[in-house]
């Protein structure tokens, strides 16, 4: 049984996908996609030997060697130029996902869709999409085993299309689609974020050297979170 998180990622790949799953670990995602869609093909990339071996094992168990290639290497370096049409990078921190995209940009000229699932700091992905010609076409938020996950879907296109220039900073931080959809899980996330920010603000105010810029930023973030929760 594939996790709800990976199932939601799979649902955002088109039929007949030819995609790379970077940091694939057990290759559960590419196996699931290829088992459910006979026209799909994938490359599973892994930088570590252990997961690379488990990925091959999983692929062979399903007899999918002809459609899933498992490759050992760092980030997008496992890909040839223009090789895949979609890229998935899931289950890592946002800054690491952004660095993987940034350092392998030249491999993405034929990539129509990037699906990222950052465990923290989704802002760094939104910012990277915005600066690199990907339109953030959708965002999903879900809860599984006590964790809240965000999935960001970017298609090559007009990067500003999903943003409103007067709310850019707020939307880059919290997500333009998540703000619009305003789902229960998003509220749960904002509530816990609000508690954290209020605590940090109280600490920053008590510091011996008062950091005014930090206070202004925290107050701004707290007011954005309150707007969501109103
Ligand atoms: N993508 C899977 C998922 O979402 O369930 C696995 C996530 S697992 C927490 C992260 C995986 O990324 C690990 O197997 C790790 O070895 C791999 N990884 C970390 N940095 C990487 C990099 N620069 N290139 C390729 N794989 C990487």
Automatic annotation (TrEMBL):
GO terms for molecular function: tRNA (adenine(22)-N1)-methyltransferase activity. The keyword Aminoacyl-tRNA synthetase does not apply. One of its GO terms (biological process) is methylation. It comes from the Bacteria. Keywords: Methyltransferase, Transferase. SUPFAM superfamilies: S-adenosyl-L-methionine-dependent methyltransferases. InterPro entries: SAM-dependent_MTases_sf, TrmK. This is tRNA (Adenine22-N1)-methyltransferase.
């Amino acid at each position: 049984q594939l996790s709800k998180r990976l199932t939601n990622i799979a649902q955002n790949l088109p039929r007949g996908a030819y995609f790379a799953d970077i940091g694939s670990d057990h290759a559960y995602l590419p196996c699931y996609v290829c088992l459910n869609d006979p026209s799909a093909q994938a490359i599973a990339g892994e930088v570590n030997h252990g997961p690379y071996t488990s990925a091959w094992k999983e692929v062979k168990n399903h007899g999918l060697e002809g459609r899933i290639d498992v490759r050992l290497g760092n980030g997008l370096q496992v890909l040839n130029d223009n090789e895949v049409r979609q890229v998935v990078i899931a289950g890592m921190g946002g800054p690491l996902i952004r660095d993987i995209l940034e350092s392998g940009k030249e491999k993405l000229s034929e990539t129509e869709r990037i699906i990222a699932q950052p465990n923290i700091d989704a802002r760094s992905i939104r910012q990277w999409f915005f600066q690199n010609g990907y339109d953030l076409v959708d965002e999903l938020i879900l809860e599984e085993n006590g964790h809240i996950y965000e999935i960001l879907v970017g298609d090559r296109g007009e990067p500003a299309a999903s943003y409103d220039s007067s709310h850019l900073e707020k939307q880059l931080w919290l997500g333009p689609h998540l703000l619009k959809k305003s789902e229960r899980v998003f509220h749960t996330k904002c509530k816990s974020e609000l508690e954290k920010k209020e605590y940090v603000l109280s600490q920053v105010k008590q510091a011996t050297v008062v950091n005014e810029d930090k206070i202004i930023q925290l107050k701004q973030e707290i007011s954005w979170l309150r707007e969501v929760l109103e």
